[in-house]
Design brief:
2 copies of one chain form a homodimer.
Chain A (H helix, E strand, L loop, with lengths): L5 H5 L3 H20 L13 H12 L9 H4 L2 H32 L17 H33 L4 H16 L18 H16 L1 H10 L8 H25 L14 H10 L16 H13 L12 H15 L6 E2 L2 E2 L2 H28 L4 H12 L14 H27 L17
Antiparallel strand pairs in A: 1-2
Helix pairs in contact in A: 2-3, 2-5, 2-16, 3-5, 3-16, 5-6, 5-16, 6-7, 6-8, 7-8, 8-11, 9-10, 10-11, 10-12, 10-13, 12-15, 13-14, 14-15, 14-16, 15-16
Amino acid sequence: MRVERPLLNALRNPSRVIAVALALAIVVGTALLALPVASADGQRAGWVTALFTATSAVCVTGLVVVDTATYWSWFGELVILLLIQAGGLGIMTLATLVVMLLSRRVGLRVRSVVQTETKAVTAADIRRVVRRVVLFSLSVEAVVAALLTLRFALGHGQALPQALYSGVFHSVSAFNNAGFGLHPDSLVRYVEDPWVSLTIAGAVIVGGLGFPVWFELARTWRRPRQWSVLTRITVYTTAVLLVTGTVFMVVAENSNPDTLGGVDREHRLVAAFVAAVMPRTAGFNNLDIAALRPETLFMTDIFMFIGGGSAGTAGGVKVTTFGLLAYVIWAETRGERDVHVGTRRVPTANQRQALTVALLSVGIVVLATLTMSALTTQGFDVILFETVSAFATVGLSTGITASLPVPAQLVLVALMFIGRIGPLTVASAMALRERPRLYQLPEERTIVG
Amino acid sequence: MRVERPLLNALRNPSRVIAVALALAIVVGTALLALPVASADGQRAGWVTALFTATSAVCVTGLVVVDTATYWSWFGELVILLLIQAGGLGIMTLATLVVMLLSRRVGLRVRSVVQTETKAVTAADIRRVVRRVVLFSLSVEAVVAALLTLRFALGHGQALPQALYSGVFHSVSAFNNAGFGLHPDSLVRYVEDPWVSLTIAGAVIVGGLGFPVWFELARTWRRPRQWSVLTRITVYTTAVLLVTGTVFMVVAENSNPDTLGGVDREHRLVAAFVAAVMPRTAGFNNLDIAALRPETLFMTDIFMFIGGGSAGTAGGVKVTTFGLLAYVIWAETRGERDVHVGTRRVPTANQRQALTVALLSVGIVVLATLTMSALTTQGFDVILFETVSAFATVGLSTGITASLPVPAQLVLVALMFIGRIGPLTVASAMALRERPRLYQLPEERTIVG
Ligand SMILES: [K+]
Ligand SMILES: [K+]
């Protein structure tokens, strides 16, 4: 691969670029949020509060230790909004560039995010990718903001400036899967307003699928047979997870008066669907998380861990990882030597990457849960929920975040950062580097199970 | 492979043999335990109680809904003992035969459990394997029973017949990783008696490593460089897990007065070691499980899920599966194309089996935990502990088993059965069957993470 500039050179190691960029944004964000002018009461926020909030915003997580609307000033909220936009756009752009690099190097077929024939990546290519991602993001956000503003003004009687501000804030927060809201109850007050909740859910899904998938779908949505492996796995897995989540939510929570059972009957299906969208990995909630049944909490852990699409604003191990592993298991239980997705064969190295991303992520969550469990007196179920939510940059919580001791909050800060850069960098680092095979040892099997 | 007899023919599908044999044993055991003579009070035990106990014994799990020593008569206890011996011996023999079949078919190098040069498996081969496994089991059990009887008689003042009975019962239960005891507190009363607890822990480890590994170690324990992949992974992973478990137990429970903190200081290290042995997957307990810290309970979940050695009496996904996946991740993060264990390369098909066994097992435990969570009002942590314990045929419990509603107990019955036959049959079925590749599609990668 020919690389022409220092910037391009840096992209050889996208993991480092992403980690450094996000860390810088967090440092700047922490400094700004610690200014007296950022707090509503003009008192300087504590460093841990500023650090936690900045990390949560940059990593588009949405976990909070203070109520966003009441604690922060107008300036503070603007900082948060800009951090979300920078974090979301940054991750999406870099991830799309990684996809492009991979597609040149290792035969990843994604319909020409950049249409050139050569294997070289030029500065012009990068500019084109950045321009397209920015254009895509801002367009979707503008449409969503307009829809929300209309509804807030006309349906909820807000003054236009207030409706516009709330519309833009929720739009940016939703598209970037950040989950920061302007109400202490997140979106619970809109659970019976499909206009608001479905618009936000739509923005979440669009942002969470990822730019390369949308770019390909824009051209080939009528011809699914031509979809690349990336698009095929992302679309199918997302559909399956949304349907499963909605059905589970109805079955488990329909009789719970504190959640779905308390929603007007005609709005329940929409409410269940929206509740199934949010764990992957927007982090808004339209139902009271603390009141969910234990089985729903656990199922939500799983949905959060799986997360959304690669190269989008969602977190988690990603539907590509989960979906690919499902294809692998399907092939294995049928005794098939190869793993086929549509009309393509997925190489074994790719399967091994998915395995590694998934199992390392399990390891990190387990380690963090053990640590948090030792640091706090909270129950195991709410701790697991909190660590998964932080690692998968979801932002849902049973409400314990603010009352956790500082060391436990710092564990969450670390989890949000690792969870945001981890799976992508691990996967891209692995995909971009492959040692030549210098020698080959004789083969031998073992039995497993 | 040449197969000569109907019996041998059946072995082509070992999964079916194992499932049918275990199911038959459970049916017979249930019928016997439901006889009035089996209960201490001469009243017929309920069918669910009889079924649960028989399944727990045959699947060498050790979960109980009634106290073994007080509820069952001498006849009932003898039935349980025989079911344990039959279940343990049956699984070990069949698993060893599977190893033998695999070693002939797919290049599994295990130092000649049956030493013949041909690829055919004869009836004589099978007789030889059965004889060796039985001889091995009974010898170890006899030594362990003798050691325990001595101690019970001399150190605990029991009359010789009582000491002998208790010695034999605990020996068989320990070697077969069954975890049935004769005291309501399992082994808590022996926590400061290293003679008893270390002898039982030793029997558990020997039985849990599996026959093929011992057979190979008997010849090559001085020359680790010659070990097969199976033996190497089993021994190393077991050592790592035992050390990790002991250290974790000391760190987490040393300050807990209801568990390790209540043990005499000079006996704590031994107690921690024994407590680390039991979750994998014997199921005796020398500390009060219900009093363990939440983080210890969760860590124990993980140790139980991993389990013991393949082709032994232990349950879980097995250390071979876990260890092999660790090797895979290690190779992947170093950017190595091949997975090397010692001086051998593990084929990708083998890696995929390990992945499938591990992830299907996770799926089953998740499904069962969700179901149990909906069926009961118990907390999530104790339910997860119970389902993992049943699936991995461990038998540890926080004490909720007896008070669970019948449907939840039946879920545990199903889990014990699936957990006992599942991973082995899945793995062997996959390894013995491989479809020829009729065509090959073009290759394409996706990105993950
Ligand atoms: K989020
Ligand atoms: K057991």
